[in-house]
Amino acid sequence: MSGAGDAPRERAIAWGDELVKLHDTFRRDLTALRNGTVRAPDLREHCLTFCDALHAHHSGEDDVLFPHLGGLRPELAGVIDRLRREHRVVGRLLARIRALAGSERSGEGGTAEIGTELDRLTRELEAHLDYEEEQLVPLLNGMTDMPEDL
User: Fold this and answer.
1) Among 95, 96, 83, which Cα is nearest to 125's?
2) How far apart (Å, rounded) are the C-alpha atoms in residues 113 and 124?
3) Nearest Cα residue to 48 out of 112, 108, 96, 107
4) Largest Cα–Cα distance in the chain?
5) Nearest CA to 137 among 12, 8, 19, 24?
6) Does 149 fall in a domain?
């Protein structure tokens, strides 16, 4: 039987695992976009929704999680700097995809351009997610406190 003092520890143990689950959702959605699972008429809406969700996730990490981790573990400065740089690279790709998806261009040319950018995004994002999980999941799963705004 666990006492009331155990609740924060139980909640915190899941943070790293929850991060992996969220990353897996991004991986799955990106694969669906790339593999044509999403039909061309719906591609614009799905691309924009995906871009917005990924941007919000990275903004939360940059604004809340990374400052919290940096305060607790100053030795992570290099890891956090790299993750922020990767967020900027992914952000530029997301902006390009948003622009293409939001343009009035239609037909195979526009869809092909989006596909090319989704391929670039996949390469960058996969490397980023893998690195972030390698560096942060063990730490997050061992933490007993997390910022409230996350």
Assistant:
1) 83
2) 17
3) 96
4) 61
5) 19
6) no
Taken in order 26, 32, 38, 40, the sign of the CA dihedral is positive
Residues 3-41: pLDDT tens digits? 444 444 444 457 899 999 999 999 999 998 888 766 666
The 10 Å CB-count burial string (b at 16+, else e) for 47-65 is: beebbeebbebbeebbeeb
Calpha distance 66→136 (Å, rounded):
10
Give the CATH number, domain containing residue 126.
Answer: 1.20.120.520
Query: For the chain, percent helix, then strand, then coil, each to nearest 5?
Result: 85, 0, 15
- Residue 55 and residue 98: Cα distance in Å, rounded? 11
* Tokens 């391929």 sit on residue: 119
Is there a domain that residue 70 lies in? yes
Going by C-beta distance under 8 Å and a sequence separation of 6 or more, which residues neighbour residue 86? Answer: 124, 127, 128, 131
For helices 7-34 and 40-60, give the axis angle rounded to 10 degrees: 150
Q: What is the pTM of this model?
A: 0.83
- What distance in Å separates the CA atoms of residue 25 and residue 94, rounded to the nearest whole number? 17
Domain that holds residue 134: 4-142
- Domain tally for the chain? 1
